[in-house]
Amino acid sequence: MTQSPPSSTPPVGEHRLGRLGIQFPFLIAPMVGISHVAFRELIRSYLPESIDPLLFTEMLSTLRLPYEDLNDLPGPLSSVGENYFVPQLLGNEESYIADSIEKILPFHPWGFDINMGCPASHQLKHNWGVRLLGDADYASRVVAVTKKHSPRPVSVKLRVATGDKIDLNYLLDFTQRMEDAGADWMTLHCRTQNQGHHGYAHWDLVSEVSKTRKIPVVANGDIHTWQDAVNLINEYKVDGAMIARAATARPWILWQIAQKWGVLTKPQARWETSPPWTSDEEGKEYFRAVLRFSCLLEDYFGDTPFALKKLVFFVAQGSRWLLFGHAFFHAVKRCENLKEVRDFVNDYAEKNPQPMGQRART
Questions:
Q1: Distance from the Cα of residue 124 to its chain's centroid
Q2: Model pTM score
């Protein structure tokens, strides 16, 4: 099934993110191993000049941040002119949170986000991530101390439940507590802890939360296309849509949304006046995006094993939307450096054109 170019602008509902100065309510999520400076630069290369969406960093440990060189993590924390990035903090102790915020502020972040959704076991042992979702008192204190030390907006990203069991009353109470503690807005990953990144998201739950909260509520999880993102705002009445792994397949997804939203300016670095729309067009653009990303990785990290590892992980995520993505990913894994990747992708794209699917093939 192919997508069609925009014939008219569909209505996008009112959103409360506008109170915080965010007019474009579509965001790119914090993703481990992905949301580094080179990836955010790739997303920005597809952005129309007139929009400034929030782009999140990978989660950053507050135990390490005070002692790190943020210009070399490896690679810098942010790029030149990147004013709408949001560092995601992982932590729970006031002194480390305060020192981390102080360390990051010279990079001019738009705000700070608190991770309350990561299900990884090595994070849970520190009482970080989704572990905070199990204790509203504890989580409230983390929000309060972050707000105390941050002169920028503070958000919380959480899941709908720990384990598998969803308790809507608990979720409503928990999000009320985060609001009362000073959170300026929140993102709800509409999957449970045990779902991880798999399975269908419970979008109906984020709609219920949004109706009861005074602060903006953003939906995350199971967004594959621009239609999904716009539908969340129009049909589920949330304040924003946060796109995660689909952005590794469609780094141009915000450009698509912008055109559907009525923003007709094009990205500064591109000659095309419209993003790819059909599945065939998207398949071709995906290979161009991998090539562009490899160059950005080399710019920020050099042609190093670290950069190659980041590219392979990027392809592992995004290639799942391609018809023969599994074969492409395993071929990229055999490359030994970024130059070899570029040579291979140029040849592969010419010989093996393929469409991009609406949903990931898992």
A1: 21
A2: 0.91
